[in-house]
Amino acid sequence: MQVVTKRYFERRRPGYGAQCRCRPFWEWLAMGLMAAVMALAVAACQHENAEQQVRSAIVQAADAARERDASALGRVLSADFVNPGQQLDRARLLGLLRLARLRGESVKVLVGPVDIEHRGKRMLARFTLTLGGGGGLIPRHLGVYRVESGWREEDGAWRCYNARWQKAL
Fold this sequence. Notes:
There is one protein chain. By secondary structure, this protein is of the alpha+beta class. It has a single domain (22-167), classed as Roll (Nuclear Transport Factor 2, Chain: A), CATH 3.10.450.50. Helix content is 41%, strand content 33%. The chain has four helices and seven strands. Strands 1, 2, 3, 4, 5, 6 and 7 form a seven-stranded mixed β-sheet that branches. The longest helix has 43 residues, at 25-67.
């Protein structure tokens, strides 16, 4: 029978003594938890990054409308953009903006807070939009609208593929 001493246990317990170079279980657990937290943080940053891109695209669309720049607005809209129920597709919307520029009319746009909802690989953005103008084509006080727009990623950029709006006031 072997005499059990303190030194015997020190050699047998992982992480103690000169002979064992194993990490204790709690160190492995801590490293695993840190790796999981870092992976979740990276995923959250990518999720947040996509939301920020959609918010930025909404601001770009508003700036393009203010400047009556149809090509800048066209970069934000998908090639198959449609406005269900009002028969306003991409070509008609860009044509309306070009006509406003040719006529020298001003376009006033104010975007309210944007709420984004993730739906798989797409996003749904809801916000209020205040529109106004300064001529015959676009009325001076057009109104406030509730907008619901669908966004998807195309070639590394988020583009609007549909939008619905309803007069709020």
